[in-house]
């Protein structure tokens, strides 16, 4: 079985929903979503109980992972280990990020 997605369609669905995050795939071993932060906004996310990978598809910002800060832009790929405090900061240009959780987000919470 295959599921296929187009980034522009995901962006439109997320925008219509009026939310920063749109989960579009969930299976036990992983979940995926599209995260959007507008320029100048604050990223309020908290550490997750699952490992995650971010793939930045648009925008410019920095990410702070446990005090280590680095710039991100379209094409940046980042791994953040479970339970690591992290946030996007200094969001200079609207940021779109594909988020991959393994296993699926919230599946390890107790």
Overview in brief:
By secondary structure, the chain is mainly beta. Helix content is 10%, strand content 52%.
Give a description of the structure.
The protein is mainly beta and 110 residues long. The chain has a domain at 39-110: Jelly Rolls, CATH 2.60.120.10. The protein is built from one helix and six strands. The chain has one helix at 7-17; strands at residues 21-27, 30-37, 51-65, 68-73, 77-80, 86-102. Strands 1, 2, 3, 4, 5 and 6 form a six-stranded antiparallel sheet that branches. Strand 3 (51-65) and strand 4 (68-73) form a beta hairpin. It is globular, with a radius of gyration of 13 Å. The mean pLDDT is 95.
Task: Using brief descriptors, characterize the structure shown.
110 residues; mainly beta; Jelly Rolls; six-stranded antiparallel sheet; 52% strand; globular
Query: What's the overall average pLDDT, rounded?
Result: 95
Strand and helix order: HEEEEEE
Rg is: 13 Å
- Proportion of helical residues: 10-25%
Overall geometry comes to: globular
- The CATH C-level name of the domain at 39-110 is Mainly Beta
Question: How is the secondary structure organized here?
Answer:
Elements: H1 7-17, E1 21-27, E2 30-37, E3 51-65, E4 68-73, E5 77-80, E6 86-102
Antiparallel strand pairs: 1-2, 2-6, 3-4, 3-5, 3-6
């Amino acid at each position: 079985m295959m599921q296929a997605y187009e980034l522009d369609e995901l962006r439109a669905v997320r925008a219509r929903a009026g939310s920063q995050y749109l989960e579009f795939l969930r299976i036990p071993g992983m979940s995926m979503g599209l995260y959007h932060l507008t320029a100048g906004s604050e990223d309020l996310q908290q550490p997750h109980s699952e490992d995650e990978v971010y793939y930045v598809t648009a925008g410019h910002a920095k990410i702070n992972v446990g005090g280590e800060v680095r710039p991100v832009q379209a094409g940046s790929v980042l791994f953040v280990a479970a339970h690591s405090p992290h946030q996007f900061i200094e969001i200079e240009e609207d940021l779109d990020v594909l988020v991959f959780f393994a296993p699926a987000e919230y599946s390890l919470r107790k």
